[in-house]
Design brief:
Chain A: Belongs to the sigma-70 factor family. ECF subfamily. The complex is a heterodimer of chains A (185) and B (373). Chain A has 185 residues and is mostly helical. Chain A contains eight helices and no strands. Chain B has helices at residues 3-10, 19-30, 55-73, 84-96, 206-211, 216-229, 247-264, 269-281, and strands at 42-43, 105-117, 124-137, 143-157, 176-177, 184-190, 286-292, 298-304, 312-318, 325-332, 344-356, 367-368. In chain B, helix 2 crosses helix 3 (55-73) and helix 7 (247-264) packs antiparallel against helix 8 (269-281). Chain B is globular and about 75 Å long. The chains are: A mainly alpha (185), B alpha+beta (373).
């Protein structure tokens, strides 16, 4: 994981690109698809460069700022994203790209597939603003305060959106919730 | 663990961006107007693109190479209004002026894609893409390596058995990432006589390439002699009917393919120029014009008189800046199985090529096979 303080724009766009391009690409590809991510990740950095004078280092780090731009670009593909989560909810989990080649036990895979399917179904049903919050946390690995920076919303709003989204996710997991016994962290 | 952790671990992951995607994004950042004016195959510098490099290293290297080449490669778009044969001849003039290079190995990395209909009605197709690296030794005792990594398997669903438009690798489509494991294979051979990888003109070694005439008329005569000396001049028995072609026409096809073969091999610049001139003169050659290839680069597509009765067109991509072969593709000649005429059925785009003094190493974790297609 890249340190969220990271290089800032003053150190040059090259360093920012090197440090964050792959993770921004991955974030977009996990919400949409790789081809779209190829374009949108590049667009994210073009926009960051174009709007660099609007970036205020005193108000936050460059990484949440990039995730904010990427999230705005993903928003233009909202329908595709919802379609993707719905499709995933029907098919369960295709085995993740990173896990290819591992010989997981079939039962574990079926259970995992159920969890993935239900999570995806719940994601499709979330309001866009709530989905942005949970996916910035889950896929971007941002902290709550960074999500607030990325979306330009108050910290308290992040918390309330997150609570609402988590209620829906928990409900969707229902009987297959592997967290049933886990504490609510 | 909470719902957020669960999402992070259970939502499908995505592959890292391909090196050319990173390089392109980088290039756009440096020159926002450069979206379509992308360079042809990159010069392979000694440090570039090791087959065994990790993804991170490969990304970093690709970026370096593009940035290093951006200055000389990008501005030279084909501003010329030339078309057809004249365009090809102008490219030949440019090719002739390229510097002669050499090294221990000729190395090329290609991105190859092929499209397969899923079923008879073709409501869906599968697109496999491969990353292939070829090492051809200059000395005949040295091993030749070809390694192939299946990069992605995508499926593309076409609405109700009909495609909306020809599939074009340069465009974007909705697709699902499939669950095919990445496959990696390699072949490792010592070719005692040093015969090179493309035998469509003849069985040629590097020494042969250097000895071939570079005057187009003399080269054509030499190729005609090769054709005449071939033992199997008449059409193969059992291929009467659709596949049968009159003898003269077969010779023409051979000459076209021989010219392409010389372009595909690491021929010296003067030989490359002669091969381009021969190709330009063939009656079945058709210069399609500028097209954007699978790597987003602008190349000149040339339809080759390869096999007229076939259902596919064979086209080669010529780099208008250097006259080097930048790739090839097959397109559907007729509508078939829900795939309309013009659909690109397979393609190869040469991402990097050039001479190197590095030596190949067997790729780890890959299966050895006798031949990489």
């Amino acid at each position: 994981m890249i340190d969220s303080s990271g290089p800032d724009l003053k150190e040059g766009l090259d360093q920012v690109f090197d440090a964050h391009f792959a993770e921004i690409h991955r974030y977009i590809a996990r919400r949409l698809d790789t081809d779209t991510a190829d374009d949108l990740a590049a667009d994210t950095f073009l926009i960051a460069f174009r709007d660099r004078h609007r970036f205020d280092a005193a108000r936050g780090a460059v990484r949440p700022w990039l995730y904010g731009i990427a999230t705005n670009l993903v928003a233009r593909h909202r329908r595709e994203e919802v379609r993707r989560w719905k499709a995933l909810s029907r098919t369960g989990a295709p085995r993740g790209w990173a896990q290819e080649g591992h010989e997981d036990a079939v039962t574990a895979r079926v259970a995992a597939g159920q969890v993935t399917g239900r999570l995806a179904g719940a994601l499709a049903g979330l309001a866009k603003r709530d989905r942005d919050v949970v996916l910035l946390l889950a896929l971007g690995g941002l902290a709550h305060a960074e999500v607030a920076d990325a979306l330009g919303i108050p910290y308290g709003t992040v918390a309330s959106r997150l609570n609402r989204a988590r209620r829906q996710l928990r409900k969707a997991l229902g009987g297959v919730n592997p967290l049933e016994e886990a504490h609510d962290g | 663990m909470d719902e957020i952790t669960l999402l992070a671990s259970h939502l499908p992951d995505a592959p890292p961006p391909a090196p050319e995607v990173v390089a392109r994004a980088r290039a756009r950042l440096r020159d926002p107007g450069s979206r379509t004016a992308r360079p042809g195959p990159r010069r392979w510098t000694p440090m570039a693109g090791l087959a065994t490099a990790t993804a991170t290293v490969a990304v970093a290297v690709a970026v370096t190479v593009v940035v290093a080449n951006l200055g000389d490669a990008v501005p030279q778009t084909v501003a010329t209004p030339l078309k057809g044969k004249q365009l090809l001849l102008a490219i030949a003039d440019r090719a002739e002026k390229a510097p002669v290079e050499t090294g221990a190995y000729w190395r090329r990395r290609s991105v190859v894609g092929a499209l397969f209909p899923v079923d008879a009605v073709s409501s869906g197709v599968v697109i496999n893409t491969y990353d292939i690296t070829l090492w051809a030794p200059r000395e005949s005792g040295d091993p030749a390596l070809a390694s192939s990594k299946m990069e992605r398997k995508r499926s593309l669903t076409l609405p109700s058995g009909k495609a909306r438009e020809p599939w074009d690798p340069a465009k974007k489509y909705d697709y699902m990432l499939g669950s095919e494991p990445n496959r990696c294979e390699y072949s490792w051979k010592v070719e005692r006589k040093g015969v090179l990888y493309d035998r469509r003109a003849a069985e040629l070694t590097f020494a042969d390439l250097e000895a071939l005439p570079t005057d187009p008329a003399a080269l054509l005569e030499r190729l005609r002699a090769v054709w005449t000396d071939r033992p199997n001049v008449s059409p193969a028995p059992g291929r009467a009917g659709r596949g049968e072609v009159p003898k003269d026409a077969k010779e023409e096809q051979y000459l076209s393919l021989a010219a392409v073969s010389l372009l595909n091999l690491p021929s010296p610049p003067a030989l490359r120029a002669a091969a381009l001139r021969i190709l330009a003169d063939r009656p079945g050659t058709e210069v399609v014009g500028e097209v954007v290839d699978a790597l987003g680069r602008t190349e000149v597509a040339v339809r080759v008189n390869a096999d007229p009765p076939s259902e596919t067109d064979y086209q080669v991509m010529v780099d208008p800046r250097t006259g080097e072969l930048a790739g090839s593709r097959s397109t559907a000649v007729t509508d078939r199985g829900g795939l309309p005429r013009g659909t690109v059925l397979d393609y190869a785009a040469y991402a990097e090529q050039g001479w190197t003094d590095e030596r190949p190493a067997r790729p780890g974790g890959c299966k050895r096979v006798s031949n990489i297609p």
